[in-house]
Specification:
Largest sheet: none
Strand content: under 5%
Radius of gyration: 38 Å
Order of helices and strands: HHHHHHHHHHHHHHHHHHHHHHHHHHHHHH
Structural class: mainly alpha
Helix content: over 70%
Length: 568
């Protein structure tokens, strides 16, 4: 009888442990689907029955971090460490908090302690360390990859999450090729791992490869129709392109995620996407009132954008200030985007007395965005503002920054940069760019020769130095050589260059024969040019002879020689 009771107790204990483990797994699954409310509730239920369940504590902390409640996560981990000071996962959780606080050395010490406690053979511990370094802004993705490769070497390794985190680490390093390789390895181990497909889609989205990223997002929901993040990415894609299709994906996202403030926020975003700016502003202000200090700061951003669109600049500035303060000082610091600083620049540029503050915000936006394509758009926006504000030198400097950022800048990019310097009155710099870079890179285009001559002319408006003479000679020749249109598109350019030379040689150099030569060149190009005909008549006319009337007048007015006196 005692054996049966003992056996029953062991069975119950085993089943109880299994149930707890399954509950933790359920919570992890909710977390994987980004259903943070359900995950939090699940882990809290486990801890209500088993307060020392280390796995539940660690994953509850991760849920709180993903929910942007770093304060609660820190409190949870600190409390757990008082009674479980050597629990590897709790040490890692605390290390992640330290990374978020910028304490890199202390965090690394926590991670290495956890590795030593498990002799470097616990895959979950190595995954957790890597994940912390991927998620925290101050984390080291190279260190994360190193630990994940260490996990690969453990006995009987088969962990798809290791490769999923590795893909995320390579993404953080902006190494798309290795990231895709890692995600595909994760899919080999778990073909239903929609997060890996979603990660591949994110890489192609960064590369602006629409065909590939849409396909991967669609494949993610095909292999797992419950994977809400992929629905959200599709919603976000169509948010800017097809508001009706965006609505379809939004409904699917809401059907597969926890209901709560986040879904209300997204529905507010969708109201904005539909062009109902007043409605979006009203919803955002209502949610700010409803949730108070707990509201997501992005609702203030929504108020700012809508108020700006509706012309309420004072309200837009106040709301954007609040958004930035709450985001910079609160747990949502990573939610600030470069475009937020760009919006602040646009708002301040329109407020009297604050125009000069705009560039400070543009600088922050440009410095913040690490994606070259996005950075170029921000620079273009800042340059347009500088031009409209009459800050032409600043415009030129910004366009130069954009030019140097590109691996293969176009002729238009170089032209815009050089022309901005010309417009700013920076003629030597325009001279250098047009006469040097442009002519060298694009010898078959007229623009380099044309603006080279004009930049030199601008430095010598009186022609006394003759700075532009050679440039205009070259322009006159090239305008003829490059005019292959058959309809004389560059005829006016060639004639204008030749007339400059006529003027220089006649008026400044005093070389009439040379002036006549260049005027004849105009007539060769256009025999009917009336201006050239008149100049030719003037320059080739013989010197005027004195008339008879003039001679007689001269004789009449000529003083007489007094008669010689007779000798006595």
């Amino acid at each position: 009888m005692m054996k049966r009771v003992l056996s029953l107790l062991v069975t119950v204990a085993f089943l109880g442990s299994s149930l707890y483990a399954q509950s933790v797994d359920d919570g992890r699954k909710f977390l994987y689907y980004e259903r943070y409310k359900s995950a939090k509730e699940t882990f809290e239920k486990v801890l209500a029955s088993d307060p020392n369940n280390i796995d539940a504590i660690y994953w509850l902390g991760q849920t709180l971090l993903d929910s942007k409640d770093s304060t609660a996560a820190k409190d949870l981990y600190q409390k757990a460490l008082t009674s479980n000071g050597n629990a590897p996962l709790i040490l890692i959780g605390m290390g992640q908090i330290m990374l978020m606080e910028g304490k890199k050395d202390e965090a690394r010490q926590q991670f290495e302690t956890a590795i030593n406690l498990t002799k470097g053979k616990d895959v979950e511990v190595l995954n957790a360390i890597a994940n912390a370094n991927v998620k925290a802004r101050a984390g080291d993705p190279t260190y994360a990859i190193e630990k994940l490769k260490q996990a690969e070497q453990t006995r009987k390794f088969k962990n798809a999450n290791t490769y999923l985190i590795m893909g995320n680490a390579y993404r953080k390093l902006i190494d798309g090729g290795n990231a895709v390789t890692a995600y595909n390895k994760a899919l080999e181990l778990d073909p239903k791992l929609a997060a890996a497909k979603n990660g591949i889609g994110k890489i192609y989205e960064t590369q602006k490869n629409q065909e590939h990223y849409l396909r991967n997002y669609e494949e993610a929901i095909q292999i797992d129709p419950a994977y809400a993040p992929a629905y959200f990415n599709l919603f976000y894609h169509y948010y800017f392109r097809d508001v009706n299709k965006a609505g379809e994906y939004l409904n699917k996202y809401i059907a597969n995620t926890d209901q709560g403030p986040e879904t209300e926020y997204i529905q507010t975003d969708y109201t904005y996407a539909k062009g109902d700016f007043a409605g979006a502003r009203q919803k955002a202000e209502s949610l700010i009132q409803q949730y108070g200090q707990n509201v997501n700061p992005r609702m203030y951003r929504m108020v700012a954008f809508t108020a700006d669109t509706l012309g309420d600049l004072a309200a837009a500035k106040t709301a954007m200030d609040t958004f930035l303060v709450k985001s910079e000082q609160g747990p949502d610091v990573e939610d600030i985007k470069a475009t937020d600083y760009e919006e602040m620049a646009k708002i301040t540029s329109k407020l009297p007395g604050m125009e000069d503050s705009a560039y400070t915000y543009y600088e922050q936006a440009i410095a913040m965005d690490t994606v070259v394509a996005n950075k170029l758009k921000l620079i273009e926006s800042a340059a347009a503002w500088a031009k409209a504000s009459g800050k032409r030198t600043l415009e030129a400097d910004l366009l130069g920054m954009a030019y140097k950022l590109q691996q293969e800048p176009s002729a238009r990019d170089l032209y815009n940069w050089a022309y901005a310097h010309y417009q700013a009155g920076n003629y030597p710099k325009a001279d250098s760019l047009f006469c040097g870079d442009y002519v060298s890179k694009y010898p078959d285009q007229i623009y380099g020769y044309l603006w080279c001559a004009r930049a030199k002319q601008a430095q010598d408006t009186s022609m006394q130095k003759g700075l532009a003479v050679d440039a205009y000679k070259t322009l006159a020749v090239k305008a003829v050589e490059l005019d292959t249109s058959g309809n004389g598109q560059l005829l006016a350019t060639a004639k204008s260059a030749l007339f400059y030379l006529v003027s220089y040689y006649n008026d400044i150099a005093k070389e009439k024969d040379t002036a006549i030569y260049y005027n004849k060149e105009v007539l060769k190009l256009d025999p009917n040019d009336e201006n050239a005909k008149n100049i030719d008549r003037i320059l080739t006319a013989p010197p005027k002879k004195a008339t008879t009337q003039s001679a007689q007048k001269g004789a009449a007015t000529k003083p007489k020689t007094p008669p010689a006196k007779k000798k006595s």
